[in-house]
Amino acid sequence: MTLNTAAPSLAARLWHAGEHAIGALQHLQPLALLAARLYVGSVFFRSGLTKLRDWDITLALFNDEYHVPLLNPTAAAFMGTGAELALPVLLVLGLFGRFAAAGLTILNIVAVLSLMDVPDAALMGHVFWGSLLLGLLLWGPGVISLDRFLVPRLRAWVFGTNAAPAPHAPRVSRVA
Q1: Nearest-CA neighbor of 151 among 98, 88, 89?
Q2: Is residue 14 situated within a structural domain?
Q3: Cβ–Cβ under 8 Å, residues 84 and 51
Q4: What is the DSSP-derived secondary structure letter of residue 172?
Q5: Considering its fold, how many domains does the chain have in total?
Q6: The pTM of the whole model exceeds 0.70
Q7: Residue 10 belongs to some domain of the structure
Q8: Angle formed at CA 107 by CA 138 and CA 147, multiple of 5 degrees
């Protein structure tokens, strides 16, 4: 078998260019995570504001339309509205970002399950928000977040100064 020493084929050059472009896109991950936090946070926060604006209608919806399992409708209205107002703020700031994403994921799932007849377009919105929240759960809020600065300090305070470094911190190998 002989090796082809000729110039790379067009397919090989395209493959290399594609790999290079995708590698360059990885530098945009912090901005993508920030955009996801801003978008999802605004969707849930505006929903909470809508519920807050006319509380009587909100209570009626939770009594008649939203059938939240295991909760009294009034308690569900308070908890749901409170979560829709508090968790997006945490998410946008990137403060306890994974906790906020987990809470909004639960809220999103309960919203879909509690509505008996969800229109297809609304369901697709919930699926999209859920996919963004899943990404935030997996990768965290990113480097453009308060978690980036506060979590290492909190970890050191809770576990002492010899605590293991954060997963995103570079590890220095020491040779004896």
Answers
A1: 98
A2: no
A3: yes
A4: P
A5: 1
A6: yes
A7: no
A8: 40
